[in-house]
Design goal:
The complex is a heterodimer of chains A (about 775) and B (about 300). With about 775 residues, chain A is α+β, with helices and mostly antiparallel strands. Helices cover about 25% and strands about 25% of the residues of chain A. Chain A folds into 3 domains: about 20-25 and about 460-600, Aldehyde Oxidoreductase, domain 4; about 35-130 and about 205-280, Alpha-Beta Complex (Aldehyde Oxidoreductase, domain 3); about 290-460 and about 605-780, Aldehyde Oxidoreductase, domain 4 (2-Layer Sandwich). The longest helix of chain A has 28 residues, at about 525-555. The model of chain A has no long low-confidence stretch (mean pLDDT about 95). By secondary structure, chain B is of the alpha+beta class. Chain B has 2 domains: about 5-170, Uridine Diphospho-n-acetylenolpyruvylglucosamine Reductase, domain 3 (2-Layer Sandwich); about 180-295, CO dehydrogenase flavoprotein, C-terminal domain (Enolase-like, domain 1, 2-Layer Sandwich), CATH 3.30.390. Chain B has helices at about 15-20, 35-40, 75-80, 90-95, 105, 110-115, 125-130, 150, 225-235, 240-255, 265-295, and strands spanning about 5-10, 25-30, 50, 60-65, 70, 135-140, 140-145, 150-155, 155-160, 165-170, 180-185, 195-205, 210-215. In chain B, helix 9 (about 225-235) runs antiparallel to helix 10 (about 240-255). Classes of the chains: A alpha+beta (about 775), B alpha+beta (about 300). The interface of A and B includes residues 113 and 684 of A. Bound molecules: flavin-adenine dinucleotide (FAD). Flavin-adenine dinucleotide binds near residues 122 and 192 of chain B.
């Protein structure tokens, strides 16, 4: 194309994270590091019981604590119920409490200590009512209702609500009832997965500053400044014009900061106190008050021909949503959509139910319903392969989707490197597994694999870009970097489209006053969707740069090309103008910078009603699919049940890695989080109260628990035509297949299959020794 | 309601003792790893914290004339873990210290704090029980010394009387020059033990067990030992049957609980297996060490 070839200037390079040194050096400022003159501290009083009516409050003792400035209950707030799918939530509990840890009252005081003490002294008169603290209790015929008022709530769709089941959905393809007769083998099993805590490093925190004009500036740990702005507006009956949300550094989210957390409460306090208020949750409060991954029970049945060709799949999913709907219809629907997995299977019926219980609400969490479904699906494929005497990878390859195939629901998939991922995984494992040192004496080694897939897309986003007078570039989006790397990767995309090095692009901090709209940092969507918007905005600006340059060089736009490093030249010549000269001209001629902007919502293939019957599905249009495969080697101690994962390989159909090191980091982090889910992590309720709301009792894997090697394999064989430079997302996919790969490895090692995670040492030993497990688990009286 | 907490940092034992004597709600503060965490969690609210940080001589590890080693109450876990002056069975303290929590906890926590807190899942209580150490105590009635066996009374309860503090732990010399192994089974790195065992083993030239001390933690309200079951293995080669008998004897004495780390049933099953590992590994270490010293050494290190 040009004299200097097509060597990339930015995309495909592992540029260091823009915030890397700052974070590694302990200099990054998170919400709790910020303060404002005259600031008050907020604290939240929470429900001590899983279910009950609020009969009254006595706030006198709380108000009497020296330094207390404001004490609020639901009676002081607008009478509104909010929620994306069902309007069932209030900022502070109104009339009823529905889980231990639910915010009931809020206090602002001169010191943190005074605020916390006053919060403890808020006296609430409760009348306890019967609670349902498990799926079984919630689904019982005469179960008490978590929301007796449910019928009065405003909601989307009718979604077949019944009892504590507030959303049921179904997808049917082919003729599953007739298909079982064609199967040579059928396997059926019930799988159970736990409530996992997001365990982001930064507990939720917000600093709210009111100004004299009646506006509130909110700096907080959130995955979207715009969603947050809208939600505060709705909860507190404030116009969005009076709410400004700004993103400081965010210490991880994983979906847990997708919705609101303490921000509306902090705004409500700042509003009455007329002073800045900061609320930072303790780790235990963060665990007890906010969200977890949905615990799930999945009954699944799969039938195949003797050669391994899949014929039919049936599944019923129950997702325990906790006390409020939040994003559960979407999470459960997405779990349904992933219940066939990345395989061809002509006859499918999957049904799902989201169920209220008197527990912490369950919400979005890396994988979004998919890890639960995939644990069932990929465990079942392995059981099927064993029954048929087939190799697990071969069975998956036989059924793997290919470009042009359709996802469950009928969406056509154009870019798909599923087979390439299976091949790449197989090749690496064939070379590296035999080279591992043998297991210790008394330990049994197993190898397990899983296919995986996920979405990348959803909803709207936008970007704006302009050329500064010195020829460098200012890029602006509304994307919040929660640690996944968008502050680094989006400028890389912009830079590449202009053949600039990444450092020539300055990326603006996110602020609802000035940033273009973005929905959320979620759904593995940022590189793909925001990257597309950045690309289009940059292309638009590039076109104008060329037009100005053509006038300067007195030639046609068609004669021009970009030269690396910020210049435009006449193709095949050495006549050029620099971006600086072009920019200077623009400032003179048009009175300001050359700009580009673009807004975008996913516009690719949709569900196809001719292929699938879908009822009450919580999504309309999704995004592109990503594929992959994970394999691992695990050793199992026959004496204690302990599992040690030696090595993990995770192959990902990423389209194009904009920043390979960053993508690898996402995969490695997701694998470790997946191992936590598979091995250790489970929130446990005893009689409606969390029994392990601290890192003393709730364990996540640390550096020494992580396998010595996690090898990401980035497969770039199937660029996504619509994505920026072919890229699609990778943020969530890495977690999806880890738990089933490990269950498959355990089955390989010791011949027993665990259908329930986490596979704690105790559960594994119980399975090996064939006894009913007394391992720690949620229980009710 | 008065929620102000006072803080004192005296530089003499006498002053510490008189401050503690004057206020039953006062607590002494060592590394703070446990106490401050409990305060943060709202589990305790002392009226006065008396820091032991400035007391002279409390943080050192000193060899005694008779071969004993005195570990000061304020010695940090990391200091004990790195100490190379332990001989024979004494080294079980260092082996246990190396397995406590994370590096941050090991630079913070102290032996005095750990044993005074007396969590049966903690590592030092089990280790000093195996080492037959003696706890030095200072109090309003004067100083006294209590053997580890008698120091741990119940779940989070010690022989310390109100107003008394631990000043040090004296680890007796080990004439048998045993090798040690601390076997700790956890859910995850840095966790407290689900079950742990401390073993000190010496072997004779012919491979027979010459000396054996084993304590188990995490399985009862205090660390447990069965001296008669240890004695039964002396003078004979180490066998799986012998180890099973020792494990069974300890299991008889155990009284585990259900908690987030595992059920009582699981702990009961783990106990003999972890004990077996600890003893086998200590024996193997003994063999390896004497082999390295003499070039020959006893034959049997593993299990006959
Ligand atoms: C995250 C974490 C992980 C941990 N993991 C482990 C582990 O794996 N294994 C393990 O064994 N421990 C573990 N611990 C506990 C740790 O070892 C503590 O340091 C120890 O238990 C207490 O020591 P301290 O010096 O910090 O005592 P402090 O917290 O200061 O005091 C603890 C208690 O002992 C009293 N006390 C302190 N010193 C004396 C004294 N000299 N005389 C009388 N009373 C005294 C205090 O008043 C207080 O009641 C962990 C702790 C944390 C926070």
């Amino acid at each position: 194309m040009s004299a200097d070839g097509d060597a990339p200037t930015s995309v495909g390079l592992s540029s260091p994270r823009i915030d890397g040194a700052e974070k590694a050096g302990g200099k990054a400022k998170y919400a709790d590091d910020l303060s404002a003159p005259d600031m008050l501290y907020g604290a939240i009083a929470t429900s001590p019981i899983p279910a009950g009516r609020i009969l009254g409050y006595d706030l006198s003792e709380a108000r009497a604590v020296p330094g207390v400035v404001a004490v609020l209950t639901a009676e002081d707030l607008p009478q509104r119920r909010v929620g994306s799918f069902v309007k069932d939530e209030t900022t502070l509990a109104r009339g009823r409490v529905r889980y231990v840890g639910e915010p009931v009252a809020a206090v602002a005081a001169e010191t943190r200590e005074a605020a916390e003490l006053a919060a403890q002294l808020v006296l609430v008169d409760y009348e306890e009512t019967p609670a349902v603290c498990s799926l079984d209790e919630a689904l019982a015929a005469d179960a008490p209702r978590v929301h007796p008022e449910q019928a009065d709530y405003a909601r989307q769709g009718d979604a077949a609500a019944e009892g504590n089941v507030f959303w049921s959905a179904e997808i049917v393809e082919g003729d599953p009832d007739a298909a079982w007769a064609e199967c040579d083998v059928v396997v059926e099993e019930v799988y159970e997965t736990p409530a996992q805590y997001h365990a982001y490093m930064e507990p939720c925190s917000a600093l709210v500053e009111p100004d004299l004009g009646g506006r509130f500036t909110v700096r907080s740990a959130a995955q979207s400044i715009f969603y947050l702005q809208g939600r505060i507006s709705e909860e507190l009956d404030l116009p969005m014009a009076r709410i400004r949300c700004v993103a400081p550094r965010i210490g991880g989210g994983f979906g847990g900061k997708n919705g609101v957390n303490v921000q509306p409460i902090a705004v409500a306090l700042a509003r009455v106190a007329e002073r800045p208020v900061k609320i930072t949750l303790s780790r235990s409060q963060d665990i007890e008050m906010l969200r977890s991954r949905h615990p799930a029970r999945i009954r699944m049945k799969t039938g195949a021909k003797a050669d391994g060709t899949l014929v039919a799949r049936e599944a019923e999913l129950w997702f325990d949503a906790g006390a409020y709907v939040d994003e559960s219809p979407a999470v459960m629907s997405f779990g349904l959509l992933c219940s066939r997995g990345p395989y061809r299977c002509p006859n499918v019926r999957v049904r799902g139910h989201a169920v209220y219980t008197n527990k912490l609400k369950a919400g979005s969490f890396r994988g979004f319903g998919n890890p639960q479904a995939t644990f069932a699906s990929e465990s079942q494929l392995d059981a099927l392969a064993r029954r048929l005497g087939l190799d697990g990878l071969a069975l998956r390859r036989r059924n793997a989707m290919a470009p042009g195939d359709h996802w469950l629901g009928g969406q056509r998939v154009d870019a798909c490197a599923m087979r390439e991922c299976l091949d790449a995984l197989e090749a690496r494992m064939a070379a590296e597994v035999p080279a591992l040192p043998p297991p210790e004496e008394g330990w049994a080694r197993g190898v397990g694999v899983s296919g995986l897939s996920h979405i990348s897309g959803l909803m709207g986003t936008s970007a704006a870009v302009n050329l500064r007078s010195d020829g460098t570039v200012a890029l602006s989006t509304g994307v919040v970097d929660i640690g996944q790397g968008s502050d680094t990767v989006l400028p890389q995309i912009c830079a590449e489209a202009l053949r600039l090095p990444p450092e020539a692009v300055a990326y603006a901090a996110q602020d609802t006053d000035s940033s273009p709209y973005n929905w959320k940092t979620a759904a593995s969507r940022i590189t793909y969707t925001a990257g597309r918007a950045v690309m289009q905005a940059t292309v638009e600006m590039r076109q104008r740069i060329l037009e100005h340059a053509a006038e300067l060089l007195e030639c046609g736009v068609g004669d021009l090309e970009l030269a690396p490093g910020g210049a435009v030249r006449i193709a095949g010549s050495d006549r050029s103008v620099s971006f600086r000269e072009v920019a200077a001209r623009a400032f003179n001629r048009i009175g300001g910078p050359i700009m580009g902007q673009h807004a975008f919502a996913f516009d690719g293939p949709r569900f196809d009603p001719k292929r699938a019957a879908m009822s009450n599905f919580a999504f309309d249009n999704l995004g592109v699919y990503v594929f992959g495969a994970v394999g691992l080697v695990a050793d199992v101690d026959r004496e204690t049940g302990k599992i040690v994962v030696q090595k993990v390989w995770s192959a990902h159909d990423i389209g194009r890695a904009v920043n390979p090191q960053s993508a690898e980091g996402q995969v490695q982090g997701a694998v470790v989080q997946g191992l936590g889910y598979a091995l250790l992590e489970e929130l446990i309720w005893e009689d409606g109260r969390l029994a392990n709301p601290s890192f003393m009792d709730y364990k996540i894997p640390d550096g020494l628990d992580a396998p010595a090697a996690i090898t990401p394999i980035l497969v770039e064989d199937a660029p996504e035509e619509t994505g920026p430079f072919g890229a699609k997302g990778v943020g969530e996919a890495g977690i999806v297949g880890v738990a089933p790969a490990l269950a498959n490895a355990v089955a390989d090692a010791v011949g027993v299959r665990l259908t329930r995670i986490p596979m704690t040492s105790e559960r594994v030993l119980d399975a090996i020794e064939g006894r009913a497990s007394e391992a720690p688990a949620s229980r009710t009286a | 309601m008065d929620h102000a907490m006072r803080f004192a940092e005296p530089d003499s034992i006498e002053e510490v003792l008189s401050l503690l004597a004057a206020d039953p709600e006062a607590r002494c503060l060592a590394g703070g790893a446990t106490l401050v965490a409990m305060m943060n969690a709202g589990l305790t609210a002392p009226s006065l914290l008396v820091s032991l940080r400035k007391l002279p001589g409390l943080a050192s590890i000193d060899p005694q004339a008779d071969g004993a080693v005195r570990v000061g109450a304020m010695a940090r876990h990391a200091t004990v873990a790195a100490h190379d002056g332990f001989a024979g069975a004494q080294a079980i303290l260092a082996a246990a210290a190396r397995r406590i929590g994370h590096p941050a906890i090991r630079t913070m926590g102290t032996i005095g704090g750990s044993i005074s807190h007396a969590d049966p899942s903690a590592d030092y209580p089990t280790a000093i029980t195996a080492a037959d150490a003696v706890v030095e105590i200072a109090g309003p009635e004067g100083a006294r010394a209590v053997p580890a066996d008698e120091f741990f009374v119940d779940w989070l309860e010690t022989a310390l009387a109100p107003g008394e503090i631990v000043t040090g732990v004296v680890v007796p010399p080990d004439a048998t020059d045993a090798a040690v192994h601390y076997e700790k089974f956890t859910r995850a790195d840095g966790d407290f033990a689900t079950v742990a065992a401390a073993a000190c083993v010496a072997l004779a030239e012919d491979g027979a067990v010459a000396a054996l001390r084993v304590a188990a933690g995490g399985v009862a309200p205090t660390p447990i030992r069965r001296r008669e079951a240890e004695a039964a293995l002396i003078g004979r080669p180490l066998t799986e049957d012998g180890l099973a008998a020792l494990g069974a004897a300890l299991a008889d004495l155990s009284d585990p609980i259900d908690d987030m780390r595992g059920s009582a049933d699981y702990r009961r099953r783990l106990l003999p297996r972890i004990v077996g590992r600890a003893v086998r590994r200590a024996a193997a270490a003994f063999t390896a060490r004497s082999g390295a010293r003499s070039g020959t050494g006893p034959q049997a290190g593993g299990v006959a």
